[in-house]
Amino acid sequence: MISRSERGVPDGDAALSRVSAKTRILVIGIGAGDPEHLTLRAVRAIGEADVFFLLDKGEAKESMIRLRRDMLAAYAKPGHRVAEGVDPDRDRRPSDYPEAVAAWRQRRAEITGDLIREHLAEGETGAFLVWGDPSLYDSTLGVLADLDPPVAVEVVPGISSVSALAASHGVGLNRVGGAVQVTTGRRLAQGWPEGVDDVVVMLDARQAFDAVPAEGVEVYWGAYLGTPDELLVAGPLAEVAGEIARVRAEARARHGWIMDTYLLRRTTTPPPR
Ligand SMILES: C[S@@+](CC[C@H](N)C(=O)[O-])C[C@H]1O[C@@H](n2cnc3c(N)ncnc32)[C@H](O)[C@@H]1O
Q1: What is the pLDDT of residue 33?
Q2: Least packed by Cβ within 10 Å: which of 127, 129, 136, 150?
Q3: Ligand 1 binding pocket includes 185 (Cβ within 6 Å)
Q4: How many angstroms separate the Cα of 37 from the Cα of each of 62, 85, 213?
């Protein structure tokens, strides 16, 4: 077992308050849209950072940027600095998906390393504000792990869109003693995962639930979770798939973008293949 102090992370309450002589990087989960989902620990971490690194895609959503800006205005210390970089573009339909992702991550690591070297002085604390929770479909930790020379990273967990989805629908993700799989729309499009009846789907640009045999499946769908624009639809997939498609298309047209997540729950065993 490796203790927090062996990893260079001070124990207990001192974890975020002791500034080491070394440069340190905080990766702070800020929740998936609701400003009140920011944890007390995240508030404290934001208040400790000297420099915030923002790496955005050109088309970063205005409401997401505003949420971050408001959090910094409310909790960052006076005199903090913001260093912005532009996320490299990623080929969305590559012939070789793993290779394209690896190249994109490499480019992102270079940009991140340059930002840190350029803007963070020895002994200062830098921070990345990560949407939702840093452990879930976010490349920040992977990119920081690839940096050369390595940097000391402390992670502050956040409320993920998956937690926000379950809370808004008032459901648990698993059933008694059961497993849950969190996956992507791209993977679901290849078929229902083996061995699980409860599947949470993220990063689904193409409504992969359309291809799921709907009999005996319930869906709990949510978009813009935690924000004033939150949309929720739940029910038997066979009955509500059309409604989700309609609500989704309308919302996307109205906002110009959409972020949605859903739980698919199989309530009856499918016939053997
Ligand atoms: C790059 S991942 C980031 C996930 C994030 N780290 C988390 O913990 O939720 C982006 C995906 O998260 C989901 N997502 C994030 N925020 C959301 C929100 N407010 N409402 C619905 N889905 C959201 C969507 O599935 C979206 O495609």
Answers
A1: 92
A2: 150
A3: no
A4: 19, 26, 35
How many Å apart are CA 113 and CA 29, to the nearest integer? 20
What is the predicted pLDDT for the residue at 16? 40
pTM beyond 0.85: yes
Q: Does ligand 1 come within 6 angstroms of the Cβ of 31?
A: no
**Which residues of the chain are modeled with pLDDT < 50?**
5, 8-21
Phi/psi at 157 (5° precision): -65, 155
Per-residue pLDDT tens digits for 45-81: 999 999 999 887 655 577 888 899 999 999 999 999 9
Q: Give the H/E segment covering residue 265.
A: strand 260-266
Contact 165, 32 (CB under 8 A): no
Taking each helix axis from N to C end, the angle separating 62-75 and 40-48, rounded to the nearest 10 degrees, works out to: 80
- How far does residue 126's CA lie from ligand 1's centre (Å)? 24
CA distance 258 to 251: 7
Q: DSSP character for 256?
A: S
Helices (H) and strands (E) in the chain, counts: 7, 10
Q: How far does residue 149's CA lie from ligand 1's centre (Å)?
A: 30
How far is CA 96 from its chain centroid? 24
**Assigned token pair, 187:** 């993977």
Ligand 1 contact via 137 beta carbon (within 6 Å): yes
Q: Determine the residue of 168, 227, 259, 260 to mutate for testing ligand 1's pocket, defined as the one with the most ligand atoms within 8 A of the Cβ atom.
A: 259
